[in-house]
UniProtKB/TrEMBL annotation:
UniProt-listed InterPro entries: Redoxin (IPR013740), Thioredoxin-like_sf (IPR036249), Thioredoxin_domain (IPR013766), Thioredoxin_ResA/DsbE_sf (IPR050553)
Residue ranges of every copy of the Thioredoxin domain listed in the record: 1-136
Entries under Gene3D superfamilies matching the protein: Glutaredoxin
Organism ancestry: Bacteria, Pseudomonadati, Pseudomonadota, Betaproteobacteria, Burkholderiales
Protein name: TlpA disulfide reductase family protein
Residue ranges of the TM segments: none
Amino acid sequence: MAPPVNYVLLDGAKAASSQWKGKVMLVNFWATSCETCMHEMPQIIATHEKFKDRGFDTLGVAMSYDPPAFVASYAQSRKLPFGVAIDNTGEIARQFGRVQLTPTTVLINKRGEIVKRYVGEPDFAALHGLVEKLLAEG
């Protein structure tokens, strides 16, 4: 099961993983200093845009060592279309199995179960196929 987490988005809104119920969630741990993260971000955005109207959502989790100003600037300049949380204390990363390597991406089904964990850039074609399958589940 995905761990229960509370977080604050860049816009100051408070949120919690309990709000994910009934959605397929992609949780992407990233950092502005991570080249692979920067390389995959356009595909993370494209994935979000492709499925967002069908019960899919994305949460970008910036690592605790990433300067908040860099994260905010990146999110604004790239117009990230999904929520971004800054994991100031590292608690979100700890709850998700002590995430240290970026990018780490976790795919969660509508029941809140972790279906797949990717360390490094996912095969996006395979990821899209899995998302399609999860969205089709009752």
